[in-house]
Write a structure and sequence with these properties.
Number of strands: 8
Shape: globular
Largest sheet: 4 strands, antiparallel
Distance between the termini: 48 Å
Strand content: 5-15%
Mean pLDDT: 92
Radius of gyration: 25 Å
Low-confidence stretches: none
CATH architecture of the largest domain: 2-Layer Sandwich
CATH class of the largest domain: Alpha Beta
Amino acid sequence: MKVELSGFNYDREFGDRYIKTPETLCAAYARISRSSKSIKELREESAKDIVNARRSNEKIVFQLGHSSIAEHAVFNFDLVDISRLAIEYIQHHRLAAFTEKSQRYVNTHTGFIIPYELKDDKDLLEKFVNFNKRCFQLYEKSYEYLNQKNDRQTSNEDSRYFLPLSTLTQCGMTLNGRTLEYMISRLKSQNIVELYNIANELEKESTRLSPSIIKYTQPDEKFKDLENIPKGSTLKKSVKLLKYDYDGFKRIISSYLFHREGKNLSIKNYDENSKKNFIKNIFKNLKSFDKPPREFELVDFTFLISCSASCYAQLKRHRMATIITQGYDINSKPVIPETLKNTPFEKKLLNLALESKELSLSLYGKNPLLYKYAVLNSTKRKVILKMNVREIYHFVRLRSDKHAQWEIRDISNTISDIVKMKEPILFEYLSGKDFYDEKR
Protein backbone atom coordinates (compact mmCIF):
# COMPACT_ATOMS: atom_id res chain seq x y z
CA MET A 1 0.00 0.00 0.00
CA LYS A 2 1.21 3.47 -0.85
CA VAL A 3 -0.50 6.79 -0.10
CA GLU A 4 1.39 9.78 -1.41
CA LEU A 5 0.55 13.48 -1.51
CA SER A 6 1.17 14.32 -5.17
CA GLY A 7 -0.07 17.91 -5.24
CA PHE A 8 -1.85 20.72 -3.40
CA ASN A 9 -2.94 24.32 -3.90
CA TYR A 10 -0.93 27.26 -2.63
CA ASP A 11 -0.72 31.00 -3.11
CA ARG A 12 0.60 31.51 -6.64
CA GLU A 13 1.81 35.07 -5.96
CA PHE A 14 3.46 34.69 -2.56
CA GLY A 15 4.07 30.94 -2.31
CA ASP A 16 7.42 31.07 -4.09
CA ARG A 17 8.72 33.71 -1.68
CA TYR A 18 7.37 32.10 1.48
CA ILE A 19 6.22 28.63 2.52
CA LYS A 20 4.03 26.67 0.09
CA THR A 21 0.96 25.43 1.93
CA PRO A 22 -2.84 25.70 1.48
CA GLU A 23 -3.03 27.07 5.04
CA THR A 24 -2.13 30.61 3.98
CA LEU A 25 -5.06 30.78 1.57
CA CYS A 26 -7.39 29.33 4.22
CA ALA A 27 -6.26 31.92 6.76
CA ALA A 28 -6.55 34.80 4.29
CA TYR A 29 -10.00 33.83 3.04
CA ALA A 30 -11.22 33.24 6.59
CA ARG A 31 -10.39 36.90 7.42
CA ILE A 32 -12.25 38.38 4.45
CA SER A 33 -15.57 38.65 6.26
CA ARG A 34 -14.04 40.52 9.26
CA SER A 35 -11.41 42.74 7.67
CA SER A 36 -11.47 45.90 5.57
CA LYS A 37 -8.18 44.94 3.91
CA SER A 38 -8.05 43.73 0.33
CA ILE A 39 -7.81 40.01 -0.38
CA LYS A 40 -4.30 40.49 -1.75
CA GLU A 41 -3.19 42.19 1.49
CA LEU A 42 -4.69 39.37 3.54
CA ARG A 43 -2.97 36.75 1.40
CA GLU A 44 0.39 38.47 1.76
CA GLU A 45 0.00 38.78 5.53
CA SER A 46 -0.78 35.07 5.83
CA ALA A 47 2.08 34.06 3.53
CA LYS A 48 4.62 36.17 5.47
CA ASP A 49 3.63 34.84 8.89
CA ILE A 50 2.79 31.14 8.70
CA VAL A 51 2.86 30.77 12.50
CA ASN A 52 0.15 33.39 12.91
CA ALA A 53 -1.78 32.00 9.94
CA ARG A 54 -1.86 28.56 11.54
CA ARG A 55 -2.86 30.04 14.88
CA SER A 56 -5.67 31.92 13.14
CA ASN A 57 -6.89 28.77 11.37
CA GLU A 58 -7.00 26.79 14.58
CA LYS A 59 -8.88 29.57 16.39
CA ILE A 60 -11.45 29.87 13.61
CA VAL A 61 -11.94 26.11 13.36
CA PHE A 62 -11.98 25.19 17.06
CA GLN A 63 -13.20 28.29 18.89
CA LEU A 64 -15.57 29.72 16.31
CA GLY A 65 -16.54 26.42 14.68
CA HIS A 66 -16.07 27.64 11.10
CA SER A 67 -14.56 24.41 9.80
CA SER A 68 -15.62 25.29 6.27
CA ILE A 69 -12.38 27.26 5.83
CA ALA A 70 -10.69 23.89 5.28
CA GLU A 71 -12.60 23.69 2.00
CA HIS A 72 -10.18 26.26 0.54
CA ALA A 73 -7.37 23.69 0.85
CA VAL A 74 -7.12 21.18 -2.00
CA PHE A 75 -5.05 17.99 -1.93
CA ASN A 76 -4.10 15.46 -4.62
CA PHE A 77 -3.22 11.91 -3.58
CA ASP A 78 -1.84 8.84 -5.30
CA LEU A 79 -3.44 5.71 -3.82
CA VAL A 80 -1.47 2.67 -4.95
CA ASP A 81 -1.96 -1.03 -4.21
CA ILE A 82 -5.11 -0.69 -2.18
CA SER A 83 -7.98 -3.17 -2.45
CA ARG A 84 -11.15 -2.78 -4.46
CA LEU A 85 -12.95 -3.03 -1.13
CA ALA A 86 -11.01 -0.03 0.18
CA ILE A 87 -11.93 1.90 -2.98
CA GLU A 88 -15.62 1.35 -2.20
CA TYR A 89 -15.18 3.04 1.17
CA ILE A 90 -13.05 5.86 -0.24
CA GLN A 91 -15.38 6.61 -3.14
CA HIS A 92 -18.34 6.77 -0.77
CA HIS A 93 -17.48 10.46 -0.32
CA ARG A 94 -19.36 12.77 -2.65
CA LEU A 95 -17.29 15.94 -2.66
CA ALA A 96 -14.12 14.50 -4.16
CA ALA A 97 -12.77 13.48 -7.56
CA PHE A 98 -11.50 9.98 -8.31
CA THR A 99 -9.91 8.32 -11.32
CA GLU A 100 -9.31 4.61 -10.82
CA LYS A 101 -7.49 2.04 -12.92
CA SER A 102 -10.25 0.35 -14.87
CA GLN A 103 -10.60 -3.42 -14.98
CA ARG A 104 -12.55 -2.87 -18.20
CA TYR A 105 -9.53 -1.56 -20.07
CA VAL A 106 -6.52 -2.94 -18.19
CA ASN A 107 -5.61 -6.58 -17.73
CA THR A 108 -5.09 -7.06 -13.99
CA HIS A 109 -1.78 -8.49 -12.80
CA THR A 110 -1.39 -6.52 -9.57
CA GLY A 111 -2.44 -9.30 -7.21
CA PHE A 112 -4.46 -9.11 -4.02
CA ILE A 113 -4.26 -7.85 -0.48
CA ILE A 114 -3.83 -10.24 2.45
CA PRO A 115 -5.78 -8.72 5.35
CA TYR A 116 -3.66 -8.04 8.41
CA GLU A 117 -6.41 -9.60 10.53
CA LEU A 118 -5.49 -13.08 9.19
CA LYS A 119 -1.81 -13.05 10.20
CA ASP A 120 -2.40 -15.15 13.36
CA ASP A 121 -4.91 -17.56 11.78
CA LYS A 122 -2.82 -19.85 9.58
CA ASP A 123 -5.69 -22.05 8.39
CA LEU A 124 -7.90 -19.15 7.33
CA LEU A 125 -4.91 -17.33 5.83
CA GLU A 126 -4.09 -20.36 3.71
CA LYS A 127 -7.70 -20.67 2.53
CA PHE A 128 -7.76 -16.97 1.66
CA VAL A 129 -4.52 -17.09 -0.34
CA ASN A 130 -5.49 -20.26 -2.21
CA PHE A 131 -8.92 -18.81 -3.05
CA ASN A 132 -7.40 -15.63 -4.43
CA LYS A 133 -4.88 -17.58 -6.49
CA ARG A 134 -7.73 -19.59 -8.02
CA CYS A 135 -9.61 -16.38 -8.79
CA PHE A 136 -6.64 -14.96 -10.67
CA GLN A 137 -5.93 -18.22 -12.48
CA LEU A 138 -9.53 -18.39 -13.72
CA TYR A 139 -9.41 -14.70 -14.58
CA GLU A 140 -6.36 -15.25 -16.79
CA LYS A 141 -7.78 -18.39 -18.42
CA SER A 142 -11.14 -16.79 -19.14
CA TYR A 143 -9.36 -13.71 -20.48
CA GLU A 144 -7.35 -15.85 -22.91
CA TYR A 145 -10.50 -17.72 -23.95
CA LEU A 146 -12.50 -14.53 -24.55
CA ASN A 147 -9.62 -12.76 -26.21
CA GLN A 148 -9.63 -15.40 -28.94
CA LYS A 149 -13.32 -14.80 -29.61
CA ASN A 150 -13.91 -11.13 -28.84
CA ASP A 151 -12.20 -7.78 -28.77
CA ARG A 152 -9.73 -7.09 -25.98
CA GLN A 153 -12.03 -4.79 -24.00
CA THR A 154 -14.78 -7.39 -23.82
CA SER A 155 -12.21 -9.91 -22.64
CA ASN A 156 -11.12 -7.59 -19.83
CA GLU A 157 -14.57 -6.54 -18.68
CA ASP A 158 -16.11 -10.04 -18.68
CA SER A 159 -13.19 -12.01 -17.27
CA ARG A 160 -13.05 -9.61 -14.30
CA TYR A 161 -16.24 -11.22 -12.94
CA PHE A 162 -13.89 -13.89 -11.53
CA LEU A 163 -11.91 -11.36 -9.47
CA PRO A 164 -12.54 -10.68 -5.75
CA LEU A 165 -12.75 -7.34 -3.92
CA SER A 166 -9.35 -8.12 -2.41
CA THR A 167 -7.85 -7.31 -5.85
CA LEU A 168 -5.34 -4.47 -5.72
CA THR A 169 -5.88 -1.30 -7.72
CA GLN A 170 -4.70 2.31 -7.86
CA CYS A 171 -6.52 5.62 -7.88
CA GLY A 172 -5.84 9.34 -8.22
CA MET A 173 -7.85 11.42 -5.75
CA THR A 174 -8.49 15.17 -5.39
CA LEU A 175 -10.44 16.60 -2.45
CA ASN A 176 -10.65 19.58 -0.13
CA GLY A 177 -9.50 19.65 3.48
CA ARG A 178 -12.94 19.31 5.01
CA THR A 179 -13.81 16.24 2.94
CA LEU A 180 -10.39 14.82 3.75
CA GLU A 181 -11.04 15.16 7.48
CA TYR A 182 -14.35 13.35 7.13
CA MET A 183 -12.78 10.61 5.02
CA ILE A 184 -9.97 10.03 7.52
CA SER A 185 -12.43 9.84 10.42
CA ARG A 186 -14.78 7.49 8.58
CA LEU A 187 -11.99 5.16 7.43
CA LYS A 188 -10.59 5.00 10.96
CA SER A 189 -14.06 4.11 12.26
CA GLN A 190 -14.23 0.82 10.35
CA ASN A 191 -12.93 -2.33 11.97
CA ILE A 192 -10.59 -3.05 9.03
CA VAL A 193 -6.84 -2.59 9.40
CA GLU A 194 -6.28 -1.70 5.73
CA LEU A 195 -8.73 1.21 5.96
CA TYR A 196 -7.20 2.41 9.22
CA ASN A 197 -3.73 2.35 7.66
CA ILE A 198 -4.91 4.31 4.63
CA ALA A 199 -6.49 6.89 6.94
CA ASN A 200 -3.28 7.20 8.94
CA GLU A 201 -1.24 7.77 5.79
CA LEU A 202 -3.69 10.38 4.50
CA GLU A 203 -3.49 12.16 7.83
CA LYS A 204 0.29 11.96 8.04
CA GLU A 205 0.78 13.25 4.49
CA SER A 206 -1.68 16.14 4.85
CA THR A 207 -0.82 17.29 8.39
CA ARG A 208 2.89 17.37 7.56
CA LEU A 209 1.98 20.08 5.07
CA SER A 210 -1.06 21.70 6.70
CA PRO A 211 -1.30 20.91 10.43
CA SER A 212 -3.75 23.71 11.24
CA ILE A 213 -6.66 22.66 9.02
CA ILE A 214 -6.72 18.84 9.28
CA LYS A 215 -8.03 18.41 12.82
CA TYR A 216 -11.28 16.42 13.06
CA THR A 217 -9.83 13.01 12.28
CA GLN A 218 -10.75 10.81 15.26
CA PRO A 219 -12.78 7.62 14.71
CA ASP A 220 -16.45 7.86 15.58
CA GLU A 221 -18.81 4.99 16.27
CA LYS A 222 -21.58 6.60 14.24
CA PHE A 223 -19.50 6.22 11.06
CA LYS A 224 -18.98 2.48 11.51
CA ASP A 225 -20.27 0.33 8.68
CA LEU A 226 -23.01 -2.00 9.93
CA GLU A 227 -23.77 -3.81 6.66
CA ASN A 228 -24.54 -7.50 7.24
CA ILE A 229 -24.89 -10.38 4.84
CA PRO A 230 -28.49 -10.06 3.58
CA LYS A 231 -31.04 -12.75 4.27
CA GLY A 232 -33.81 -11.55 1.97
CA SER A 233 -34.74 -12.86 -1.46
CA THR A 234 -33.20 -11.55 -4.66
CA LEU A 235 -35.04 -9.39 -7.18
CA LYS A 236 -36.64 -11.14 -10.15
CA LYS A 237 -35.71 -8.13 -12.30
CA SER A 238 -32.61 -5.97 -12.09
CA VAL A 239 -34.63 -2.74 -11.62
CA LYS A 240 -37.85 -2.05 -9.74
CA LEU A 241 -39.52 1.35 -9.42
CA LEU A 242 -40.29 2.02 -5.75
CA LYS A 243 -41.64 5.57 -5.88
CA TYR A 244 -41.91 8.63 -8.10
CA ASP A 245 -43.44 12.11 -8.01
CA TYR A 246 -46.54 11.54 -10.12
CA ASP A 247 -47.28 15.28 -10.40
CA GLY A 248 -43.65 16.17 -11.00
CA PHE A 249 -43.95 17.56 -14.51
CA LYS A 250 -46.37 20.25 -13.32
CA ARG A 251 -43.91 21.18 -10.58
CA ILE A 252 -41.04 21.50 -13.06
CA ILE A 253 -42.99 23.78 -15.41
CA SER A 254 -44.35 25.94 -12.59
CA SER A 255 -40.93 26.40 -10.98
CA TYR A 256 -39.38 27.19 -14.37
CA LEU A 257 -41.95 29.95 -14.99
CA PHE A 258 -41.47 31.14 -11.40
CA HIS A 259 -37.71 31.53 -11.97
CA ARG A 260 -37.54 32.67 -15.62
CA GLU A 261 -40.68 34.75 -16.00
CA GLY A 262 -41.38 35.91 -12.44
CA LYS A 263 -44.78 34.20 -12.25
CA ASN A 264 -46.41 33.08 -9.03
CA LEU A 265 -45.62 29.54 -7.99
CA SER A 266 -48.85 27.69 -8.61
CA ILE A 267 -49.04 23.99 -9.40
CA LYS A 268 -51.68 23.67 -12.09
CA ASN A 269 -52.53 21.29 -14.86
CA TYR A 270 -50.96 21.70 -18.28
CA ASP A 271 -52.34 20.18 -21.45
CA GLU A 272 -50.28 17.87 -23.65
CA ASN A 273 -49.34 20.54 -26.18
CA SER A 274 -48.08 22.87 -23.45
CA LYS A 275 -45.90 20.10 -22.05
CA LYS A 276 -44.50 19.20 -25.48
CA ASN A 277 -43.68 22.81 -26.30
CA PHE A 278 -42.05 23.27 -22.91
CA ILE A 279 -39.76 20.24 -23.37
CA LYS A 280 -39.00 21.16 -26.98
CA ASN A 281 -37.94 24.68 -26.01
CA ILE A 282 -35.78 23.38 -23.15
CA PHE A 283 -33.85 20.87 -25.25
CA LYS A 284 -33.58 22.64 -28.60
CA ASN A 285 -30.24 24.23 -27.70
CA LEU A 286 -28.85 21.54 -25.37
CA LYS A 287 -25.95 19.44 -26.60
CA SER A 288 -25.24 15.91 -25.40
CA PHE A 289 -22.82 17.23 -22.76
CA ASP A 290 -25.22 19.93 -21.47
CA LYS A 291 -27.41 19.53 -18.41
CA PRO A 292 -31.14 20.27 -18.21
CA PRO A 293 -32.02 23.24 -15.97
CA ARG A 294 -32.01 22.94 -12.18
CA GLU A 295 -35.79 22.92 -12.06
CA PHE A 296 -35.52 19.28 -13.15
CA GLU A 297 -34.01 18.51 -9.74
CA LEU A 298 -37.38 19.04 -8.03
CA VAL A 299 -38.76 15.67 -9.16
CA ASP A 300 -37.47 12.33 -7.87
CA PHE A 301 -37.63 8.68 -8.89
CA THR A 302 -36.58 5.92 -6.49
CA PHE A 303 -35.50 2.47 -7.68
CA LEU A 304 -34.47 -0.81 -6.13
CA ILE A 305 -31.61 -2.28 -8.15
CA SER A 306 -29.90 -5.65 -8.11
CA CYS A 307 -26.44 -5.66 -9.68
CA SER A 308 -23.03 -7.25 -9.43
CA ALA A 309 -20.14 -5.80 -7.46
CA SER A 310 -18.54 -5.01 -10.81
CA CYS A 311 -21.58 -3.01 -11.89
CA TYR A 312 -21.85 -1.31 -8.50
CA ALA A 313 -18.28 -0.07 -8.94
CA GLN A 314 -19.64 2.10 -11.77
CA LEU A 315 -22.99 2.90 -10.18
CA LYS A 316 -21.35 4.36 -7.08
CA ARG A 317 -19.59 6.98 -9.20
CA HIS A 318 -22.92 8.80 -9.55
CA ARG A 319 -22.31 10.31 -6.12
CA MET A 320 -24.86 13.11 -6.37
CA ALA A 321 -27.61 10.49 -6.45
CA THR A 322 -28.80 8.95 -3.18
CA ILE A 323 -27.33 5.45 -3.01
CA ILE A 324 -28.21 3.13 -0.12
CA THR A 325 -26.54 -0.27 -0.25
CA GLN A 326 -27.26 -3.61 1.29
CA GLY A 327 -24.48 -6.06 2.05
CA TYR A 328 -23.32 -8.45 -0.67
CA ASP A 329 -25.67 -11.38 -1.23
CA ILE A 330 -23.27 -14.32 -1.16
CA ASN A 331 -26.28 -16.69 -1.12
CA SER A 332 -27.56 -15.68 -4.55
CA LYS A 333 -26.45 -16.90 -7.96
CA PRO A 334 -23.69 -14.67 -9.35
CA VAL A 335 -24.08 -12.48 -12.41
CA ILE A 336 -22.67 -14.38 -15.40
CA PRO A 337 -21.69 -12.47 -18.56
CA GLU A 338 -23.39 -13.66 -21.74
CA THR A 339 -19.96 -14.35 -23.26
CA LEU A 340 -19.33 -17.00 -20.58
CA LYS A 341 -22.72 -18.69 -20.62
CA ASN A 342 -22.83 -22.20 -22.09
CA THR A 343 -19.06 -22.41 -21.86
CA PRO A 344 -16.88 -24.31 -19.33
CA PHE A 345 -16.31 -21.00 -17.57
CA GLU A 346 -19.95 -20.66 -16.53
CA LYS A 347 -19.65 -23.70 -14.28
CA LYS A 348 -16.24 -22.54 -13.06
CA LEU A 349 -17.71 -19.19 -12.02
CA LEU A 350 -20.63 -20.89 -10.25
CA ASN A 351 -18.21 -23.16 -8.36
CA LEU A 352 -15.98 -20.21 -7.50
CA ALA A 353 -19.02 -18.40 -6.12
CA LEU A 354 -19.61 -21.33 -3.75
CA GLU A 355 -15.99 -21.09 -2.58
CA SER A 356 -16.46 -17.35 -2.14
CA LYS A 357 -19.52 -17.96 0.04
CA GLU A 358 -17.72 -20.49 2.24
CA LEU A 359 -14.70 -18.22 2.72
CA SER A 360 -16.91 -15.15 3.26
CA LEU A 361 -18.74 -16.90 6.09
CA SER A 362 -15.43 -17.85 7.73
CA LEU A 363 -14.18 -14.27 7.45
CA TYR A 364 -17.51 -12.95 8.76
CA GLY A 365 -17.14 -15.14 11.84
CA LYS A 366 -13.78 -13.53 12.53
CA ASN A 367 -14.86 -9.96 11.76
CA PRO A 368 -18.25 -9.05 10.19
CA LEU A 369 -16.63 -6.53 7.85
CA LEU A 370 -13.89 -8.82 6.53
CA TYR A 371 -16.22 -11.06 4.51
CA LYS A 372 -16.31 -8.53 1.68
CA TYR A 373 -12.66 -9.24 0.82
CA ALA A 374 -13.82 -12.65 -0.47
CA VAL A 375 -16.75 -11.25 -2.47
CA LEU A 376 -16.44 -11.68 -6.22
CA ASN A 377 -17.06 -9.00 -8.82
CA SER A 378 -19.93 -11.22 -9.96
CA THR A 379 -21.59 -11.27 -6.51
CA LYS A 380 -24.92 -9.45 -6.38
CA ARG A 381 -26.06 -6.72 -4.04
CA LYS A 382 -29.26 -4.69 -3.76
CA VAL A 383 -29.13 -0.92 -3.93
CA ILE A 384 -31.73 1.79 -3.35
CA LEU A 385 -31.09 4.49 -5.94
CA LYS A 386 -32.87 7.85 -5.82
CA MET A 387 -32.28 10.26 -8.68
CA ASN A 388 -33.98 13.46 -9.73
CA VAL A 389 -34.92 14.02 -13.37
CA ARG A 390 -31.77 16.02 -14.05
CA GLU A 391 -29.61 13.20 -12.71
CA ILE A 392 -31.56 10.61 -14.72
CA TYR A 393 -30.78 12.51 -17.92
CA HIS A 394 -27.09 12.55 -17.01
CA PHE A 395 -27.07 8.90 -15.94
CA VAL A 396 -28.81 7.58 -19.07
CA ARG A 397 -26.74 9.70 -21.46
CA LEU A 398 -23.60 8.13 -20.03
CA ARG A 399 -24.75 4.61 -19.21
CA SER A 400 -27.08 3.87 -22.16
CA ASP A 401 -24.39 4.90 -24.61
CA LYS A 402 -23.10 2.09 -26.82
CA HIS A 403 -19.65 2.39 -25.22
CA ALA A 404 -20.99 1.72 -21.70
CA GLN A 405 -20.37 -1.61 -19.97
CA TRP A 406 -23.15 -4.09 -20.75
CA GLU A 407 -24.53 -4.67 -17.23
CA ILE A 408 -24.92 -1.03 -16.25
CA ARG A 409 -26.18 -0.28 -19.77
CA ASP A 410 -28.96 -2.84 -19.27
CA ILE A 411 -29.87 -1.20 -15.97
CA SER A 412 -29.80 2.25 -17.54
CA ASN A 413 -31.99 1.12 -20.44
CA THR A 414 -34.50 -0.38 -17.99
CA ILE A 415 -34.58 2.84 -15.96
CA SER A 416 -35.12 4.74 -19.21
CA ASP A 417 -38.02 2.48 -20.19
CA ILE A 418 -39.64 2.84 -16.75
CA VAL A 419 -39.49 6.63 -16.55
CA LYS A 420 -40.64 7.05 -20.15
CA MET A 421 -43.67 4.93 -19.39
CA LYS A 422 -44.54 7.16 -16.41
CA GLU A 423 -43.67 10.53 -18.02
CA PRO A 424 -43.27 10.08 -21.81
CA ILE A 425 -43.16 13.79 -22.66
CA LEU A 426 -40.81 14.76 -19.83
CA PHE A 427 -38.33 12.09 -20.94
CA GLU A 428 -38.80 12.45 -24.69
CA TYR A 429 -35.13 13.37 -25.17
CA LEU A 430 -33.77 10.70 -22.83
CA SER A 431 -31.16 8.50 -24.51
CA GLY A 432 -27.51 7.54 -24.58
CA LYS A 433 -25.07 10.06 -26.03
CA ASP A 434 -24.83 8.09 -29.27
CA PHE A 435 -28.56 8.63 -30.01
CA TYR A 436 -28.99 12.07 -28.45
CA ASP A 437 -28.68 14.10 -31.68
CA GLU A 438 -31.21 11.83 -33.41
CA LYS A 439 -33.67 12.40 -30.54
CA ARG A 440 -33.40 16.14 -31.02
